[in-house]
Design a protein that fits this description.
Residues 11-71 form the HTH tetR-type domain. With 207 residues, this protein is mostly helical. It is 63% helix and 0% strand.
């Protein structure tokens, strides 16, 4: 039976698990990371891992959720909500999110290893994510619903619009299939422009 830990010990071990998990998940990946490796810096038995997290996937998800506020600031507050109009907002959001998926080690790892993404997604608690004050997913859904009501987005189910945006965000997973890497920026720019234009109604600017 795992030992009981004081509040101070729990805080220390949790911090070490988060730090070690972040380092290992982004270098060797979720599947190759072992409980022995995760628990080594804590100085306690590996069986105690389950006192803190239900699984490695749950630890990975916790790391991602702790980034939610910063991710929202970059892709929603400074991109989606900073556009001159709806079309420009969508362009900014897609470019900012694609950039996030490329440079954010935790997210880019999942995008390049779909089996790990499926494993982490399996631990997702929708109620917890929805309750986050700085939830980028909720912010995007609210934006789409609002712009649909005002007629600035095409007259289709908002879930379809969200699905189209999500489809664009899968592009990094297949970057190696896009041919000449020097053309990738132009391909992305054109794709984002086509999607943003196609989702918005007439009268939007083309800046």
């Amino acid at each position: 039976m795992p030992p009981a830990f004081s509040a101070e010990e729990k805080a220390r071990i949790t911090a070490l698990l988060l730090d070690t998990g972040d380092r290992l998940f982004t270098t060797v990946g979720l599947r190759k990371t072992t409980l022995d490796e995760l628990m080594a810096p804590t100085g306690v038995a590996k069986s105690s891992f389950y006192v803190f997290f239900d699984s490695k996937e749950a630890l990975y998800l916790e790391l991602m959720l702790r980034q939610a506020a910063e991710v929202k600031r970059r892709v929603v507050d400074e991109a989606l909500l900073a556009g001159s109009d709806t079309r420009d907002s969508l362009r900014r959001f897609l470019h900012a999110t694609l950039h996030e998926l490329t440079v954010n080690p935790l997210w880019s790892r999942l995008m390049s290893h779909p089996e790990e993404m499926r494993a982490v997604a399996g631990k997702l608690d929708p109620a917890r994510v929805t309750a986050l004050a700085d939830n980028p997913v909720t912010a995007v859904s609210d934006f789409v619903a609002d712009r649909r009501r005002t007629g600035e987005l095409v007259d289709v189910d908002p879930a379809v619009i969200i699905g189209v945006l999500q489809t664009v965000l899968l592009v990094p997973m297949f970057a190696d299939r896009l041919g000449d890497p020097t053309l990738h920026p132009k391909i992305i720019d054109l794709l984002v422009d086509i999607v943003a234009t196609g989702l918005t109604t007439q009268g939007e600017s083309t800046t």
